[in-house]
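ENTRY TYPE: protein
WANTED: fold as tokens:
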Amino acid sequence: MDKLNAMQLFVRVAETGSFTAVADQLDVARSVVTRQISALETQLGIKLMTRSTRSLTLTTAGSAYLEKCRVILNMVDAAESSLLEEKTEPRGRIRLGLPLSFGLQRLMPALLEFAQTHSHIELVMDFSDRRSKLIEEGIDVSIRITSRLEPGDIVRKLGESRLLTVASPQYLAEHSRPKHPRDLTQHACLVYSQDFQSTSWGYRSKDGDVNVPIRPRLAANNGEALLQAAAQGLGITRPPDFMAQPYLDNGSVVAVLTKFEPVPLGIYAVLPSNRYIPHRVSVLIDFLAHALRSN
């Protein structure tokens, strides 16, 4: 048994909490994974995990062993990579999580250029606006646009995206133009939401911050859908600038409350853990950061 491979497999199983998920990621039978973990336990002479039909739990010894495995594997990765990365072209597979609209409109041109430049890197791209479970899904890096990071998120900030408050000329003719964020309480608002809970819109001005509770007429987890609704006169929405620009250009929506600046969205590369980042992933993150700055 290859001890390092067994340790890597144990860490994956412990982090995902599933033999099946790891087997799927490695494209092997579940029995291959379970046999290797059993062999590792036999060699160590101690139980690392307790299994049931529905759950997998680390023993006390398993938890302690997991932390030691992470330290050892990080050191091995760092030692090998430091020797190789300056002499060899980056290569290997990168599983990449991408937000749907921003990924297609802004990131895809840069990713295609990256793929042409780095022919030995295979990009596997998952376009979705949901919050990915990086470890469980085997994702190496996820690009996320948000005004609020979750506790424990390990990120590198790549840039920012402005939010714009917009409505159709038709809607404004029928309902009047809001002059202050507080006026939004009297308007139909079209709200981006992942969990469809009550929300508020924050603005900044020279007179201080304003936070307005919003009761949405329509809520969706896709900004393009909300812009289409706004363009048809259903209400006021707050899309990111890259998404709103085509609608502003063709006149189907116009900007309002331009003296009040919403808190911008951060564009982040989110990593599955704080362990060693593979060289190919670092190269991709640097490339995207430069591309976003250039744009």
Summary: DSSP finds ten helices and 15 strands in the chain. The two ends are 50 Å apart (CA to CA). The longest strand covers residues 154-161.
